[in-house]
Write the structure tokens for this entry.
Amino acid sequence: MLKDITIGQHFPGNSPVHNLDPRLKIVLTVAFVFVLFLSTNFVGLALAAAVTLLIYKVSGIPLKMLKKSIKPLLPLILFTVILNLFFIKGPGDPLISLGFIKIYKEAILFIIVMICRIIFLICGTSLLTYTTSPIMLTDGLESLMKPLNKIHFPVHEMAMMITIALRFIPTLIEETDKIMNAQKSRGAMLDSGSFADRIKALVPILIPLFISSLRRAEELATAMECRCYHGGEGRTRLKQLKITGTDITNTVIVAVMFAIILSTRMFFPRVI
Amino acid sequence: MSNMIKVDNLWFRYSRDSEWALQGINLEVKKGEFLCVLGSNGCGKSTLAKHFNSILVPEKGDVWVEDINTKDDDRLLDIRQKVGMVFQNPDNQIVATVVEEDVAFALENMGVPTREIRVRIDEAMEAAGILKYKDRAPHNLSGGQKQRVAIAGIIAMRPDCIVLDEPTAMLDPNGRAKVIKTIKQLNRDYGITVVLITHYMDEAAQADRVVVMSKGKIEKIGTPREIFSQVAWVKSLALDVPQTSDLAYQLNQHGYNLSTEAISIEECAAQLYKFLEE
């Protein structure tokens, strides 16, 4: 179950998507989020889907990863569906009317658009972590946020914290699995009982996990000190960020696609 | 031969009201040697190792790395560059999510120019035998491979000395053999001084000198032959001896007269062969 979590996973590769400068990739991802929430018609959303698929194709990330990243979202999607189905009211007559439950056409349209947005949002943003090594990602963030140094915001420290957090996700997942198995083998009931029981059953998993994380943190800090870590001052980089001509071309291509998606707003009526 | 590390009457405790973890340690680590530190759990060997590159500093006494006192804060980075350290759990030493980026971590911290980092990490990965995994994610590697990534991360700094604190304790026999082979190669081919802390006597048997610690003190320093031939004494410290010495020792208990000094498998076999012929 825990193995299914894909956030923060990186699939090394050598595609134009992988090689794009992380700063541009971050900017494009943020732009994509805006584009999604500004697309208010189905043509725009269909184009957004096409663009997402195209970029996945180019990056060589297997499409089954898409399914994997959407799966954990099903509860959230279901929640959105139910909530909106009953609470959005349209000006016309309801499509279905069962006593106090009234379902309007607007609600259904809104739900479809929302589902599309959530799915594309996750697919698009996962692509960022799939194709960018976390170190490149934090390098990119660090570089984009450098101006904040002027107001004494600890940019390097924050970047380092993110790197380490990402690095330890697989390790801690493995550890959680081990602890769960250990507790199960001693008779812990993790999958049965009432909701409250299950929450309580998590305590003997979380406590050992926290303790071991603290121990890991201490060991890692020592190991980092042994490797001359002394903050961001005077640090150099193995991979220096450099925006190449190809990067610019690729960014412009993607930007044009985004612009086309946005321009559909002018030609097609809003559905919500 | 000059000293790599010199420990001069070192006393250390973790807090004011706790017991002394180290009680008057005197030790000289010679340049280019392969030194092994043995001792049962809690005897202070890891604490001692942490003094070698100024992770801990003595409460009384001094530790010198070449001519630098480890208490000298201004030379801290020099000390850490000269004496690299590898720990038991490879998972807790790896910072980056791609092998080559992790190997480069120390060099990035030291401010080495990008072009030189590239050259040095390739060398280091080659020396540790992990060059073919350079684009892999560390969590997908085996324990032995991860530990060699950690070693490569240290040798990229081009240290004069590497201190390894039970680097093979969490590895399977195959991974363990590869790590030990790498360590021996670094010692022999690159002239790097090695201080190896271990519980495995067959690893200790390959060292130039062995230090035996007990309860925060050094009990004895000698060649593996000198140490392990005193089987009864070593066992009294809750330690093992190599299987070869143990075999001779056990046979001697039954009235045979074999030398416990034969610690390599070949020596031991030759001795037994000779004995059986007679």
User: Anything to note?
Assistant: Residues 173-189 of chain B form the longest helix (17 residues). The domain at 3-241 of chain B is CATH 3.40.50.300 (Rossmann fold). The radius of gyration of chain B is 20 Å.
